Amino acid sequence: MKEIPQHNLGLDLVRVTEAAALASARWMGRGEKEKGDKAAVDAMRISFESVDIRGVVVIGEGEKDRAPMLFNGEQVGTGKGPEMDVAVDPVEGTRLLAYGRPNAISVVSLAPRGTMYDPGPAFYMKKLVAPPEAKGKLDMNAPVAQNLERAAKALGKDVDDLVVFVLDKPRHQGLIREIRESGARIQLHTDGDVAGALMAVTPGTGVDLMMGTGGTPEGVLAATAIRVVGGEMLGMLDPQSDREKEAVLAAGYQLDQVLSTEELVSSDDVFFAATGISGGAFLNGVEFTGKGARTSSMVMRGRTGTVRLIEAHHTFEKLMRISAIRYD
Known about the structure:
Layout: H1 9-25, H2 33-47, E1 54-59, H3 62-65, E2 75-76, E3 83-92, H4 94-98, E4 105-112, E5 124-130, H5 144-155, E6 163-167, H6 173-182, E7 185-189, H7 193-201, E8 209-215, H8 216-229, E9 232-237, H9 242-250, H10 261-264, E10 271-276, E11 287-288, E12 292-301, E13 306-315, H11 316-322
Parallel strand pairs: 1-3, 6-7, 6-8
Antiparallel strand pairs: 1-2, 3-4, 4-10, 5-8, 5-9, 10-12, 11-12, 12-13
Helix pairs in contact: 1-2, 7-8
């Protein structure tokens, strides 16, 4: 049954991520990650008031970081329109923003109510992210070298052609060693595994795969976009403390369960938006021009598989006459 084009909520979401990026970018490199995060949270919360959804935040970041946050269970949107699960990360990479490093982004995704994976007390998840060509060919429990060989074959490359995104954390010493021993190359990043996952499924970023343990909320956020483009994320909960492990097991989660992209987000009717804050290989950052700013965003809609790259030019003289958010 054919239908006329429907309203694309992703185009509403990009105004939300643009607002958060513009507000937080003023704090880039100033060493104040909480203030940068708060600026983004405040801007995002106000911007959601114009989005026609009955949204409930099910994926947030603040409980792990003790950061200012859009909290789990918070209702967002106008209260009209579809009931949606909402995943937010007003600043993904708060340390990247604070120290002026690349790949800090603002991210939001939507899915029909009840279709996003609830991580409960699980803050960390082991992830394996691959582009569409390698979907179904990798195994979360296989040795690193074997997965790299399978990925290389699927991509029509040699193993030593591959570049793997890995967070530069002590927990990844063994993983880094295995990747290097296989002959593949590595991009080490201090933070930003949503950006890393998206780089792994987006052509032209210089990254072929992402491996390693990062945030569970970030995993669900990234899975929304990965589902749209047809890539693959495999995940396993990976508690980083005895306290977290006890809480996860007490809540009934299985540590040996491999979660697929479709289990992390069980609907195709999803929307995703991300706006660059500090810039990088994935998205350009906010550029202040003296009279305004330029932003770079990515917007996705699941049902159509449409991916839009949007460059927006913001004129503060006009914007500040009407905006409840201060950008200047």
